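Escalated from tier 1: iron/sulfur cluster holo job.
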Amino acid sequence: MNHPAHKTPLNGLTYEQLVELCHRIGVKPVHAERLLASIFRRYNTDIGAITELPAALRNYLSECTSIFVPECTASQQAADGTQKLLLGMPDGKEVETVLIQGSGRLTQCISTQVGCAVGCTFCLTATAGLTRNLSAAEMVSEVFAGQHISGRKVRNLVLMGMGEPLHNYNAVAQFVRIATDPKGMAFSPNRVTLSTSGLVPAMYRMIDDELPCNLAVSLNATTDAVRERIMPINRKYPIAALMKAVRAYITARGNKRVLIEYVLLAGVNDSADDAVRLCELLDGLDCTVNLLPFNPFPGSDFKRPDDAIVTAFRSALASAGKVVVVRESKGREISAACGQLKTETKQQHLRTGG
Ligand code: SF4
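Tier 2 regenerated the structure:
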């Protein structure tokens, strides 16, 4: 890993911060743009090789900064091309990232924390709790690793990996701004999606800050009783408060469509009554509903509903005029549940004393 602790990680800086750095060491701001393009467009990691920069700047950068690219400590590839990577961060902590092939475009699922504190009962990542937040540079480095390992351009970013992005608001906001900066990575804000379990105050902060990305909300239940059981965060921010924040977001963003995610758990939230209540909750809301049949992992208390139940649920929503898509978990055979590759690798290490 090329990330000496005393060096500033360049891939965590915004354009403004790079301009300030150039100013500090007496080189023209135009070099900040070249530097940004070289790092974030061409994913260059060797500062000494960026020959369009003045030698003074290159020397300074080589001495005082670094470009961090994480080590890939485990990987799995599914028949459909989905690739799951376990990435080692500078302190040895590991996070997962997933590369998903879809209609010619590569989508990368980004982790925002090592572990997660939200405690959703259907999620494997939740079982280990939260270890720490990731920095913006570490999130950018996940994209670097995705680009380098796939050898292809990542087109879409979804912040749906390990962690609750809005629990790590400042670093995530910095990452989103770096990712969507036209001078830098230049992802269209429409191609970056942040998914939250429903941290209502931080959703209002996203509105105030005009964070340039799409919003996805992990709803997963139609009554507070069920949602509290599977997502403890609902005790603090119940469904009514959450849906109010979603509506505020849509209004503030000029009717920007949101994504509603609904993990279907057999016998828990997949009844005909649930479908009716979900339609009521989403009444008049500009949204797409992603139905995600649960992908079981060893030791989980939940089951995937039968295909007939999934079809009936989808049809009920479609007949009510909702835009609804059933998303099968890509690469179901490769420990595709969030946190599963990390858990399996850890167990293997314990077994082998590694
Ligand atoms: S589903 Fe997301 S928010 Fe919930 S525990 Fe898992 S990682 Fe955290």
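The first helix runs from residue 15 to 24.
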